[in-house]
C-alpha cells in the first residue's frame, strides 16, 4: 500500500480546495436547516399547526425546530463512527443528499387544510431527517479542513466550515426576503415560501460536484494505513475515557448556540414581525436585518479563526463570551424599541460575540481528541452542545414570553447560557498547535483541563 500523504506534502491549492468544498457544502446544508427554522415561525405555525389557538401554534412550530436536535446525537454517533472507520469524505456526501432531499420534499408538502393531521406528521418526519443529517455533517466537514491544514493555520482553515453556517443563514434569509417581495402578503403563505425549499435540489447538485473531487483527510489515510479502522468502538472509548471533556466542551458550544438560535432558530424573525406583538415590524424589514447580521457573523467568524492562530483558541473564546454577554443583555431592549436602526444595531453587535465564540470551534474541538476517535468525539460533543443549547432555545424563549408577557426572562436565559460557556472555556487548557497525527496519540489523550495535574512527556 502506498504511503498516505503527510501534511507537508499537501499542496496549498489542495488545502484551499478542501476549505472551499467544506465551506460551500456546509453553507448548503445549513441553508436547508435554517430555512426550516425561519419558516417555522412565519408559515408553519399557520399552515401546519393552524388549528392550535393563540401562541400555542408558534410554540409547537418552534418545538419541531428543537425536535430535530434530539436526533442530532444519533446522526453524530452514526457519522462519527463511519468517519472514523470509512473516512470523512463518504459521510459528507451522504449527509448532503439526505439534507437536500428532505428540504426539497418539504417544499412539496400539503397543508393542514388540505391533508389534515398527515401534513404535520410528514413535516416532522422530514425535519427528523434534517436533524440526523445535521448531526453528521459538521464533524466530518471541520476535520477535513483542520486535518488538511498546517499547524499554524488550523484556526483559519477550520473557520471555513464555520463560515458556512452564517452563510447558510445569509442565503436562507436572503431568499426569504426576496420571496417576500415577489410574493407579498397572502401570496407568501400560499406559494412563496415553497420556492426556497425547492431550490435546495439545485444546491445539492452544486455541493455534490464541488465535494466529489476532494481528497480524503491525511489523518484518516494514516489511520487506515496503520489498521486503526479496526480499532475498538470509538463511541465506547469516548464515553469511558473522555466524558468530562465531552460535557465541558459541549457546554461551551451550548453557550454560543443558545444565543445564536435567536436568529438561526427563527425566534427574532417571528417575535419582531408578529403583527399582534409588542414590536410589529414589517416581515421583510426584519428578514433583511437578519440577512445583514448574517454577513457580519460571517466576518467575525472568519476573524475568530484567524486570530485564534495567534492568541489561542481559549483567549479568543473568553473575549467572545464577554462580548456575547453584553450583546445578549442588549438584544431585546433594543429590539423592543421598534426602531429598525436599533434592531440592526442589536443584531450586528450580537454577531461580534457569536462569531468570536464560533470561529475557532473547529480547531479547538479537533485539538481536544486523539486521532482514532476524533471524528466521533468532535461530532458527539457538537451534537450534545446543540441539544443543551440551541435545540429548544426558540421554544423556551416563546414559552417564557407567553408566561411572563415580557422579554426580561428571555434576556436572563441568554446571559446565563453565555456565562456558563465562559466558565467552561476558562476550565480548559490551551492546546493550540498540538500534533494531530497518530504518532502523537499519547500527547493528544491528556492535559485537557487547566486545573488537573499536568503529565510531563
From TrEMBL:
Family annotation (SUPFAM superfamilies)? MFS general substrate transporter (SSF103473)
This protein's GO cellular component annotations are: plasma membrane
Note the superkingdom of the native organism: Bacteria
Gene Ontology MF annotations: transmembrane transporter activity
Give the chief site where it resides.
membrane
Task: Give the subcellular location.
Answer: Cell membrane
Alphabetized Pfam families for the sequence: MFS_1
Q: Which InterPro entries match?
A: MFS, MFS_dom, MFS_trans_sf, Sugar_transporter_CS
Q: How is this protein situated with respect to the membrane?
A: Multi-pass membrane protein
Q: Where does the Major facilitator superfamily (MFS) profile domain start and stop, copy by copy?
A: 18-433
UniProt keyword annotations, A-Z? Cell membrane, Membrane, Transmembrane, Transmembrane helix, Transport
Q: Which residues cross the membrane?
A: 21-44, 56-78, 90-109, 115-135, 156-179, 191-210, 242-264, 284-308, 315-335, 341-360, 380-401, 407-428
Name of the protein this chain belongs to: MFS transporter
